[in-house]
Amino acid sequence: MSAPTVTSVTVVSPAGRAGLAVGDELLSLNGQVPRDVIDHHPRAIQ
Question: What 3-state class would DSSP assign to 40?
Answer without folding.
Answer: helix
